[in-house]
Design brief:
611 residues, alpha+beta, GIY-YIG endonuclease, Nucleotidyltransferase, domain 5, 5 domains, 8-stranded mixed beta sheet, 21 helices, 44% helix
Amino acid sequence: MSDQPVFDYASFLKHASVRPGVYRMLDADGVTLYVGKAKNLKKRLASYFRGTGLNNKTLALVRRIHQIETTITNSETEALLLEQNLIKDKRPPYNIVLRDDKSYPYIFLSSKDTYPRFALHRGAKKQAGHYYGPFPSAGSVRESLAVLQKVFQVRQCEDSYFRNRTRPCLQYQIKRCSAPCVNLITPEVYAQSVRHSELFIDGHNDQITQELGKQMERLANEMKYEEASTIRDQIRDLRLIQERQYVSGEKGDVDVIAMSETAGVVCVHLIFIRGGRLLGSRNYYPKFTMESSPEECLYAFIARFYLGESGQFALPKELICSHEPVEREQLEEALSFIGKSKITISHKLRGHRQKWLELAQTNAEQGVFTKLNSSQNMQKRLSALQQALGLEKLPARLECFDISHSSGEATVASCVVFDENGPLKSDYRRFNIEGVTAGDDYAAMAQALRRRYARLQKGEGKLPELLIIDGGKGQLQQAETVLAELNVQGVRMLGIAKGISRKAGQETLILGGSHQELVLLAESPALHVLQHIRDEAHRFAITAHRQRRGKVRNSSMLDSIPGVGPKKRKGLLHHFGGQQEIRRAAITDLQRVPGISKQLAETIYQYLHNS
């Protein structure tokens, strides 16, 4: 299929506006493919039709364009808000997809009851009462409800259960409820507990503590010591919760956002802090179609999450991000307009706030790892790989080789193995490469393959269905030669070479045998599994290389001298203070070290000076 668009873009661009606005790209049926905004509509739209520099995703979009509609706006901020409204309405396939099937949970407080109840609520807000939230997950709601039970003893039972009680339930016995169902607490005192519960949800723990402190002092003066001790326990519990949940003295509204991406899987981890209290955190797995860099992806996610259909959360005063989003100032302006107060986006931090960003980044990376290695996801990718390569059956075992060195020093080859469940780390192998010219990756690859498959031919392991080589035609030819020499049959081979830009998603696949080149779309699950195993082989090779290089650089020149063991080596170093002083020493000086004979001293001297 030609990369040339069917749309007459040259004629369209002649009359395009240079003002800010929003553009909609439509296909032959009038369906919206993509919605974007621009500071300069003409300049931005022209970038889609340039002759070079477009990635596969953009080319795929351009080939489907039959019409472009534009809307001029007064400012970039207005364009950004309109863009998000159109994305919400049209749901274009080439814009970021942020699916979330479940609505966010709230804490519900009934208002019509004499003794109101607190409960988890999800869905339409039809009941009369107050709704606090939303919270990032049901778990964070249940945690807050558990605190309300323990500290304030407010009821959480269903109305039907509450109305039919004749004696207190187990919650009263374990001091998790004040038993309003049988009137063991007056409406006035219960209302005070409800008010304190509301203050707690809103993050006003200091105000509650001050009020309870005065109440405890009053009860103690009235010699109501048992009631005063109950208040004392409440204050203690609140302080413990406050110590556990406050974020290093930060008492504002902050969202911490970190993004991680590997082999086509993107995870954005959000930590939600409201009123200085950690509400919880959540992983999101958005599907990015057009964006490529982390900065572009974070911009698209923030705009979609806070300005689009998912923006159920009250906007915080600050967003702390793992990368600086593109057009950060414009994004801050749009968020501030929606939130009706100044909102900042930060990415360079120190101290405790940096620790929270590191925690979010760790969770994002773990989210990617979990998603990549889920058996369901792996089966889908292997099935796509089978179809892309025309394999007769699903590849049940894949092996990938990579070479790592520093200017030829401490060369190491890695072999990683994937099965239908993902990485099979028990079968990983590494090979210390010896006897090849420094920096000769072809010879290093040939040696690693020969050592690996000579053993497999002897029955010391399983042959893979697919052998993947991290490299181009040269490395692939080495693999073909070695397997032919060893008479290894039934193994399909594939080279994976980085494209000209060396960016993920633009790799070139080289089929073994025919050396035919195959290019897969960046969103292809088949390409993602190849990227995953390639990146894992690269990681394993680099780790092994660094270990070997460190061991060589940290080794002593005394280690190779015959007759000098650990004890004599320690004695020499202790006597002379270092290896350079040992090298300068004469034979008679060496003899003065305990345990060093004249003959051994001569051996040490000759070895050091001949070396």
